[in-house]
Amino acid sequence: MAVQTVENPPMPFRWPIDHGMKIGSEVILIGATYSGQQKQFAVNLNGQGDDVVLHVNPRFKFLEDTIVLNNRSYAGWQKEERHRNKFSVGDAFRLRIEIARFEHRLAPEMVRSLEVNGDVVLHRINLVNMAQPAAQPSAQYPSSAPPHPSMAQPPYPPPPQPIGFGAPPPMGFSPAVDLPYPPIPGLQPNFANEPQWHQRDGSGGFGPPKPNAPYPPYGHQ
């Protein structure tokens, strides 16, 4: 239970209540009355502007020893409620105002400040269980996003080279030397059966290949 305490406040006293009051909120005043010119004191729970959510007004005037309860809205002061005054001039007191379930004239959530004035000295004020601001859901974002991959540096490592194969030799691939697998006894490659791509010469046989020669037209033998 959250409690705000104010010790020996100066008079008149005003204290902000930013988020209003709620069911279970309390205002506890500890002080004493004295014989002054006003012959009364007042405790107000103020709203916005000129609104007064609750007005508690003990009066000590002659033939008016009473406590007045009221509220004020945009239409002015409303109907008073009067009760017998249990306060006496010069006596110490403890006044406790508790917000309970009740058909309030103005909602306790409208309270924005506490005000005390008149012929009274306050030693301590406790504000108990005041309303708190509504919690806002926090957006969940990653703490840091990875940087975008640059064009100069690939985002992924190059694929691994196959096991057993290296870079091709400078002079080309030689099956007799560079076979990546062990030779099999009795099995030798036959290079005589390699296909040779030649064009026909005029005698009908196969002559040496002619580089960059055009293809024969379709149907030509």
TrEMBL record:
Where is the sequence biased in composition, kind Pro residues? Answer: 144-172, 208-221
Matching PROSITE patterns, A to Z? GALECTIN
Domain Galectin: residue ranges: 13-128
One Pfam family for this entry, by name? Gal-bind_lectin
The record ties this protein, via InterPro entries, to: ConA-like_dom_sf (IPR013320), Galectin-like (IPR044156), Galectin_CRD (IPR001079)
The alphabetical list of record keywords is: Lectin
Q: Which GO terms describe its molecular function?
A: carbohydrate binding; galactoside binding
Q: Does the keyword DNA-binding apply?
A: no
Q: Specify the superkingdom.
A: Eukaryota
Q: Which segments carry the region annotation Disordered? A: 136-221
The protein's name is Galectin
Organism the protein comes from: Globodera rostochiensis
Lineage summary: Eukaryota, Metazoa, Ecdysozoa, Nematoda, Chromadorea
